[in-house]
Fold this sequence. Notes:
By secondary structure, the chain is of the alpha+beta class. It has one domain: Aminopeptidase. Helices cover 37% and strands 35% of the residues. It contains five helices and seven strands. It has helices at 12-27, 33-44, 46-54, 101-116, 130-138, and strands at residues 2-6, 59-65, 68-76, 85-92, 120-126, 142-152, 155-165. Strand 6 and strand 7 (155-165) form a beta hairpin. Helix 2 (33-44) packs across helix 3 (46-54). It is globular, with a radius of gyration of 15 Å.
Amino acid sequence: MLNIISANISDIPTIQSVASCAWVHTFKVILSDSQITYMMQLMYSYESLCEQIEIQHHRYFLAKWQDTVVGYMSIEHNCENSGNTKIHKAYILPEKQQKGIGKLLFSVAEAKAKEAGDTAIYLNVNKNNTNAIAFYNRIGFSIIREEVIDIGNGFVMDDFVFEKTIL
């Protein structure tokens, strides 16, 4: 049985554990090892995750398959005062992909965005992440722009921004 549950500070080690597998698996053929290491520290250190949850108001959700967490997502309502919800992170363990977990996580994001009164959900995706791009297209997202974001240490994120209007 699959459940989506809200996460909190006590779930940070679980998020980090899933990220260390799912995130690295996703980017091992897209990014250099040094950029992966840098970005994991930047986005998934305990301090960074605490700041995301407590200060930046990211809401984390865990996908539980039976009693095991197999994925996670974070969202932020009215991100940058846009009136839209941003999906900051959405990752599923490689062996649990293509089982409907991503669709369920995204349906939760859409429902939470509606509850918050936002009019769309959006996200960034690496331009070379073809599997994620295909998934976003299948579930009704469209590219609205491209972004190159300097993340420091000589690295950039070269992304498409996808959006889906909420009806």
